[in-house]
Amino acid sequence: ARRVLEAGTAALAAARATSDQLATIADEVSEMYAAVNDPQTFLRHDVRFHQAVAAASNSPILGVLIEMLASMFYEQRRATIEHAQDLRESADMHRRIYQQIRARDVEAARAGMDEHLRLAQAAPSLEPGGPLATT
Known about the structure:
single chain; about 140 residues; mainly alpha; 6 helices
């Protein structure tokens, strides 16, 4: 369900995001890179990235759903993110999604978010990118 919601949200963000919303997404990506050695801070910016993408979809209903998902997964990821080996890889994937949204490439943004969440779901939960590690 999360992959469907967030991939669709990224596609809508690519079609609808304002310049201010794009700047907010870019800021969260920058902060993720700045926090690659601080997993808890990284996680806060990871969650804010997904919330910013949802806001940029300009769909209030999707925004509320993503907010609920973010709250639910945050507590689980907070306990496991310390085990992540390479947060830079996760930041790179978030940057690619941002670039796809900024380029207004609806299908690439949808596919990029889907791939990101699919990889996170497939990885062991305590490994980098695991479903409980980071998103």
